[in-house]
Amino acid sequence: MSITAAFTRSLDGQRVQCFLCPHRCALQPGETGRCLVRFNRDGRLIAGSYGRPAALLPEAIEKKPLFHFFPGSLVLSLGTHGCNLSCSGCINWRISQNSGESQLPEMTPPAVVAQAQAQRADGIAFTFTEPAVFYEYCRDIALHARQAGLFVVAKSNGFMLPGVLKSMSEWLDAVNMDLKGWYGSRYRAMMGGALGPTLHSLRLARRLGLWLEISTLIIPGFNDTPVAISNMARFITDELGPQSPWHLLRFFPEHQMAAVPPTSQFQLARAVEIGQRAGLQYIYTQTLAHGQWLQTRCPMCQKTVIEREPHHLRASKLVQGCCPTCSTPIPGIWQTNFIGANDE
Fold first, then answer.
1. In angstroms, rounded to a whole number, what is the distance separating the alpha carbons of residues 306 and 107?
2. Would you say residue 302 has pLDDT above 50?
3. Where do the DSSP E strands lie in the chain?
């Protein structure tokens, strides 16, 4: 089901160049890009993972994590093989770091949407690996999904060229984007790509009007120093806004970082404190203080307005998107103000 890829340019001698991400791979016939799934076939760049899901399952929207977008909704999560980064601690490395055969059958975009409807999902999430790498499959699924009245969200590493994100914004409703670290040289060594493009993508997503939430996996010995966390928190506050939700995720040994210890409760608590000092109003982390940092609190009166368990909504007390106690608006996209494609 492979198709000709978007964002490509023909070069001399049947070479092609991909303009999907900052790697800008220039490929001879038979060569494959760094993402492992886009390749040159006789002078054409092929999107090799099109129609080939490597992971497909229903999940709560909170697992993406998206906490201020349709709380309690169900999404059909989909990802393919391949990724344009090679993160040393990737939890999905078995599919992100190879282009192997999927254990799932091929599925056309209409078939994916039909499965989402059969499972009574409210939307579709592109996740597990970088959605930009399977851009064409995402795009076609999203167009069918929006025609069916489903929303579309993504979990992204942000490592893409601006034109790609601009195009994705035409059919995405929300995105959770990673801010994986701060120091450029260490970031490149650990992630296999530069930090700068992701910072630009975060700024651009905000300017494009996408609902944006940010995730940072706190990795001991990599990005857990007070200076690094402070720099990330201040970037979010200054560049994206103090009301941007920031998810602090706990690292567990995985892939090439099996010898690195898990994130401690102290490291998470320190990161939360630093984020608060930077002015961030909505900071979330799962395993700290018996789950108290899973809850959404009104920044004005500090009353809990949304209660959660891990990856699960317990209750929303919002009244038309506002705190029921002091009427302060809580930023987000709530059930009452989403406009689907059928209503546009």
1. 36
2. yes
3. 3-4, 8-10, 16-18, 26-27, 38-41, 44-47, 53-60, 74-80, 123-126, 151-156, 174-178, 211-218, 246-250, 283-284, 296-297, 304-309, 312-316
What strands, in cross-sheet order, belong to the sheet with 304-309?
Answer: 296-297, 304-309, 312-316
Angstrom distance (rounded) from CA 268 to CA 220: 10
Tell whether omega for the bond before 245 is within 30 degrees of 0, i.e. cis: no
Cα dihedral 5/132/171/40 (nearest 10): 0
CA distance 305 to 312: 15
What six digits make up the tokens of 84? 């344009």
Q: Are strands 8-10 and 16-18 parallel, antiparallel or unpaired?
A: antiparallel
Positive or negative: CA dihedral 14, 34, 152, 110:
positive
CB 158 within 8 A of CB 194: no
Residue whose C-alpha is closest to residue 201's, from 153, 246, 163: 163
Length of the chain in residues, anyone?
344
Q: Give the closest residue to 283 by CA, choosing from 338, 220, 333, 237.
A: 237
CA angle in degrees (0–180, nearest 5) for 174-176-181: 150
Q: Residue 238, SS3?
A: helix
Structure tokens at 283: 């900071």
Decide if 306 contacts 296 (C-beta within 8 A): yes
Model confidence at 339: pLDDT above 50: no
> Tell me: the pLDDT tens digits for 58-90?
999 999 999 999 999 999 999 999 999 999 999
In tens, the pLDDT along 16-26 reads 999 999 999 99
Model confidence at 103, in pLDDT bands (50, 70, 90)?
A: confident
d(CA 245, CA 114) in angstroms, rounded, equals 32
Give the C-alpha separation, 2 to 22, whole Å: 23
